[in-house]
Write a structure and sequence with these properties.
Elements: E1 7-10, H1 17-32, E2 38-42, H2 48-56, E3 63-64, H3 72-75, E4 83-84, H4 89-99, E5 103-107, E6 113-118, H5 119-127, H6 132-137, H7 142-148, E7 152-155, E8 167-170, H8 174-177, E9 186-189, H9 194-202, E10 207-210, H10 218-226, E11 230-233, H11 238-245, H12 268-277, E12 282-287, E13 290-296, E14 307-311, E15 327-333, E16 347-350, H13 356-366, H14 373-387, H15 397-410, H16 414-426, H17 433-438, E17 442-446, E18 449-458, H18 462-465, H19 468-482, E19 486-493, E20 498-505, H20 508-515, E21 523-527, H21 532-535, H22 537-546
Parallel strand pairs: 1-2, 1-14, 2-3, 4-5, 8-9, 9-10, 10-11, 14-15, 15-16, 18-19
Antiparallel strand pairs: 5-6, 7-11, 12-13, 17-18, 19-20, 20-21
Helix pairs in contact: 1-13, 1-14, 2-14, 2-16, 13-14, 14-15, 14-16, 20-22
């Protein structure tokens, strides 16, 4: 089941347009340059602005990767051998030997898991001595016997009919045992004179199994056909034939039905304890009731770590869930460094520009890779978004040059398109106060205080500020439930180029110290402030040193 892992190019949680578009564009660049299995991904839902850009340039959203914790699908092995409930014990034994497994899954005709059969189940059955009598009671058929003894059929009958009579071994002369044979029974007989076979037919047996490849005359075959007696021959001797027939019992007669199974999406951390405390060696992996793989305790090992290329972020607190169990191999970003540590040297391209997509655009140029029209459109969209159409103080000449260059490839008037995209993103529509609190949110560690800082850009702040009290109440709940010292929401006015800052939690005097305003009312207006990265986080980081 486990295959070569993808390498995910992925932005931060609660992704914005830069996070999504940089992932798509950089994954495309890596693949064009010959990298294998590089896939664009996202760690959260797409906002309205990003959806506008993706729809405009007809690009599908990256696949959602909510976490990268190792899962059962990463360690499950394909099922090379499985048996059905109707298979016999000999088939089961062969399957175990060929697969090198001490237990194998049992499925029905639709491949749905119904049980497990193990070596211990087989051993228990043999210790309880599976006899020829028990085969008669097991529901086995003539065709089951044919298969298990590798029989040659001389006279055919109703193969699928269930065995109803007893199975008897004729080990002495026929005259001595004739009075013990009843009509309808099955007899196993060795290389005997013709009269012994003739006598069995006269006694009305239902099936005669002749061992050691004994020669049977045409007269006996003709008489058996006339009397509706099935005749089988086998190369095995009488003893071996009897032992093999005892293996005709169906797997369903010995299998365990109370089975511990896993789903492909189960986390290994949840499964490991079960593997360590249970006696079974193999565990089926089931999806929608059907068997899709096996987890083997004997071959269990932690899977290869998920490789990640981080775009538009580098702080673990902002990364996809489970990043601690992954392997960061590259970072392409335009933010401050937040204490990232890696076990190996990695490729890092971090520059002080307004948008990650500006860096990605420059990388296409650096490597002389042609930028497709759709990719150019997405790159341009992200730069316009992050620089608020060049109004943000984070905007650099490199961002402006990139937009001019990309607009020609994308075939758009970047001013007209940019305003339309920003307007689409500024429409709060049916957003609830809870949605606003988590919109484009990022985690930051400011001194000893973990903070969630969110941002919402709008054309008119009145509609948002009318919900101020509800927004602040939701912010307080987020702090309490998710363990943040403070929650901040930046409501940015694109037209008037300023922001309202709403804040909840403690210490509020940190906000007052950072922005030199009264922080007692949990809201303040910051004229000219449009950038979280350059105008909110740095003042907070400096102010916390002075507290």
């Amino acid at each position: 089941m486990s295959t070569e892992k993808n390498i995910y190019v992925i932005g931060h949680r609660n992704p914005d347009t830069d996070s999504i578009c940089s992932a798509i564009a950089y994954a495309n660049l890596k693949n064009v340059m010959g990298a294998k299995n590089v896939v664009a991904a996202r760690a959260g839902s797409i906002n309205k602005e990003t959806k506008y850009a993706l729809d405009y340039f007809r690009v599908a959203a990256p696949q959602l990767v909510s976490d990268i914790y190792p899962r059962v699908s990463d360690i499950a092995i394909d099922v090379t051998k499985k048996v059905k409930t109707t298979d016999n014990l000999r088939t089961l034994g062969i399957a175990m030997k060929e697969a090198g497994l001490r237990s194998v899954p049992v499925v029905d005709e639709e491949d749905k898991l119904v049980g497990m059969a193990s070596v211990s189940d087989l051993a228990k059955a043999y210790f309880q001595e599976i006899t020829l009598d028990s085969v008669s009671a097991s529901g086995a058929s003539i065709v089951d016997i044919e298969n298990v003894i590798e029989a040659k059929v001389l006279v055919k009958g109703n193969d699928t009919a269930k065995i109803t009579g007893d199975i008897k071994v004729i080990a002495s002369c026929i005259e001595r045992v004739a009075d013990t044979i009843k009509a309808g029974e099955i007899v196993i007989i060795g290389n005997r004179p013709e009269k012994a076979y003739d006598k069995c037919i006269d006694l009305g047996v239902s099936c005669m199994i002749i061992t050691s490849d004994a020669v049977v005359s045409e007269e006996i075959i003709a008489k058996a056909k006339d009397k509706n007696v099935i005749v089988l021959t086998t190369a095995f001797d009488t003893y071996s034939t009897a032992r093999l027939i005892s293996q005709c019992a169906p797997v369903s007669s010995i299998m365990t039905t109370n089975v511990v199974s896993f789903k492909p999406t189960d986390m290994i951390s949840d499964v490991k304890g079960i593997l360590e405390t249970n006696e079974y060696r193999n565990y089926p992996v089931v999806e929608n009731g059907k068997l899709v793989g096996i987890v083997s305790k004997d071959k269990f090992m932690m899977p290869e770590k998920q490789s990640i290329i981080m775009t538009d972020h580098n702080e673990l607190g902002q990364a996809v869930e489970g990043i601690e169990s992954g392997k960061i191999i590259e970072v392409v970003d335009h933010h401050r460094f937040g204490g990232l540590q890696t076990s190996d040297p990695i490729f890092i391209n971090v520059r002080p520009v307004g948008c990650t997509c500006t860096i990605v655009t420059n990388m296409y140029q650096q490597y002389n890779v042609e930028i497709p029209q759709q990719i150019a459109g997405l790159l341009l969209s992200a730069i316009i978004s992050d620089t608020v159409l060049f109004k943000s103080p984070t905007c650099t000449q490199a961002d402006k040059d990139a937009v001019e260059y990309l607009a020609k490839i994308a075939g758009v008037d970047y001013k007209e398109y940019g305003l339309a995209m920003l307007k689409a993103g500024a429409d709060i529509g049916d957003m609830t106060p809870a949605d606003i609190v988590k919109n484009d949110s990022k985690e930051f560690q400011i001194g000893n205080y973990p903070m969630l800082i969110s941002q919402l850009s709008v054309m008119d702040t009145d509609q948002v500020m009318a919900m101020k009290d509800e927004i602040l109440a939701n912010m307080a709940q987020v702090c309490e439930k998710e363990g943040y010292a403070m929650s901040l929401v930046i409501v940015t006015d694109i037209i008037n180029e300023g922001s309202y800052l709403l804040f909840s939690g403690e210490p509020k005097n940190l906000i007052g110290e950072a922005f030199k305003q009264d922080a007692s009312k949990s809201v303040m207006y910051l004229p000219g402030v449009m950038s979280r990265k350059k105008q909110i986080v740095p003042p907070l980081s400096e102010a916390v040193k002075r507290l």
